[in-house]
Amino acid sequence: MSKKPSLKLFKLIRSMTPSEKRYFKVYASNHRSTDSNKYFKLFDAIDAQKEYDDQALKTLIYNGEKLQSKKFPELKSYLFESILKSLQAFDEKTSVDYKIKGLLSNVKVLYNRSHYVECKEYLVKAKKLALKYEAFIDLLEILDWKKRIAYTLIDIPFLDKELKYIEEEEKTYLEHLQNIADYKHLFFEIYFLVKKEAFIRSEKKLPIVNEFKRHPLLQNLSTAKSHRAKILYYRCRSLYYSFVLKYKKFYNFNKELIALMESAPHFLKEDVSEYISATSNLILSCGLLKKYNECNEVLENLHEIKPLTYDDELKIKRQYYLFKMSIAQTTGEFETGLKTINDMQKVSKKYKLEFFEPSTLYFQYFYIHFGLGDYDSALDYLNKLMDIPKSDVNKQDLRSIARIINLFIHFELGNHLLLESLLRSTYRFLKERQRLYELEKEVIRFITKAEKIQTKKELDTLFKELRVQFKKLSEIPSEKAMLNYFDFDALLESKITNKSFAEIVKSKIKKD
C-alpha cells in the first residue's frame, strides 16, 4: 500500500502572504543551490495548485526522467526548510522581538571581541525597545550583560553603585513575568471549564464556577502589573461572565478590553490576534443584548482590522461571516443570511480546507434554511449536525438541541410514523449524555401529547402551554443556555398565530 503524500509543504506555501512569497524568491536567489531551478519551479507549481497533486508535480519537475525513490521527497524537504529560513529572515525585518534578539546578538559578537563600549550602546537600544514592549525576559538578559561587562572590566565603582538597583530591577521583571504567568494559568483554567461544559447545565457546577469570581487576581485591575497582564485580567473577566450568562458585564468588560488595547497601538502593530478575539466577543455580547446597530458597526470594524499573519486573516474572515449569519438568523433576515452563505462559499475557495470546519456551520445553515421555510435543506444540515462524533465534546450541546428541533420539524412535516422512533432514540441519546433537562423533557412530553390530539384548537392550547413552560425555563441559567441556541418562543408563537417563523422573529426585533 503506497504511503499518502505529506501535505505540510502545500499547506505552508498556501499559508504564505504575497509579501512572504516575494521575499522567499529574493532570499532563495541569494542562496542558490545546484537544484535551485527545480525548487523554484516546485514552489511555483505548488503555489498554483488548488488541490495537492503529488504525481503531477513529479511529472512537471522531472519531465519523465527516471527517479531514485528518495530524490523527490528530498527536494520537497529542502524546499520546506528553505521556506522556513526565509520566513525567519522575513520576521527578523518586521518583528520587534527579532529586533531585540538581533541587538543582543550584536552584544554577544562585540563582547567576544572585547568591544565593551559598543556593547553598552547596543544594550541601551535593546533596553529601550524591551521596556516599550514589555519584553521582560529580554530585560533580564540585558541586566545580566551589564553585570558581565562590569565584571570583565573589573568596574568596581559601577558594581558598587549599580548592583543594588540591578537587583531591584531583576526582582521587578521577575514579578511581572510571574504575574503574567499566573493570569495565563487562571485564563486557561476558566477556558478549559468553558470548553468542557459549553454552558452551565447543572446548578451543582455553580459553586465551582463562582470560585473564579472570588479569585484574588480578579478582584481589582491594579493586581495586574503590566499592560500584558491587564489584557489577561480583562480576558479572564470577560470569559467568566460569558460563561455565567451575565451578558451586560460580558459586554462591558469587552468594551474596556478593546479600549485598553487601543490605548497602546504599538502592541497591536506586533500582534492583533487577541484584538481580533476581543472584537469578536464584543460583537457576540452586542448580539446577546440585542444591540444590533452596534453589532453591525463592530462587525465592520472587525472586517477592517489589518491582519499581520495568515492565521489573523483566516480568523477575521471566519468570524465576519459567522457573525453575519448569526445576526441574520437572530433578526429574521434569512434572505440576507442565504446571501451571506453564498458570499462566504465564494471567499472560502481561496482558503480551501483551512477556512471552516464544516461542523461549525451546520447549525447556521440549518437555521437560515429553516427560517426560509426550506425544511428539506434544514433537515439535511440538522442530520449532519447530529452525526458529529461523540468525541467532539465542544459540539455536544448543539447535538442535543439539534435532536430536539428535529422532533419539531418532523412533527411539522407530519412524519407521524417516524416520530415514535425518533422520540425513543432522542430520549435514549439525551439520557446517555446525561443531558435530559427540563427543556428536553417538556419537548418530548409535548410531542407525545400532540401526536394524540385530533383538533387544531387542542393543539393550539398545547402550544400555548409549552410556551408558558419555556418562559419559566428561561429564568433558570441551566436551561436558559440551551434556549439561547434557537428562538423556540418565536417558533411557538408562529404556530399559535399561523404566521411564518421569519415574520415573528422580525416583529419581535421591532418591539425590542
Commentary on this structure:
76% of the residues lie in helices and 0% in strands. It is mainly α. α8 (136-152) runs antiparallel to α9, α19 packs antiparallel against α20 (396-412) and α20 (396-412) packs antiparallel against α21 (416-432). The radius of gyration is 29 Å and the shape is globular. The relative contact order is 0.05.
Number of DSSP helical runs: 26
Count of distinct strands: 0
Q: CA-to-CA gap between the ends?
A: 63 Å
Question: Spans of 5+ residues with little confidence (pLDDT < 50)?
Answer: none
Largest sheet: none
Averaged pLDDT: 86
Task: Evaluate the radius of gyration.
Answer: 29 Å
- 3D shape: globular
**Helix/strand structural class:** mainly alpha
What is the share of helical residues?
A: over 70%
Q: In what range is the share of β-strand residues?
A: under 5%
- Give, in order, the helices and strands: HHHHHHHHHHHHHHHHHHHHHHHHHH
Characterize this entry briefly.
This protein is an all-alpha fold and 512 residues long. Helices cover 76% and strands 0% of the residues.
Describe the SSE topology.
Elements: H1 8-14, H2 18-29, H3 36-48, H4 54-62, H5 71-94, H6 96-112, H7 116-132, H8 136-152, H9 156-196, H10 206-213, H11 227-243, H12 247-262, H13 265-268, H14 273-288, H15 292-304, H16 310-331, H17 334-351, H18 358-371, H19 375-386, H20 396-412, H21 416-432, H22 438-450, H23 456-473, H24 477-483, H25 488-497, H26 501-511
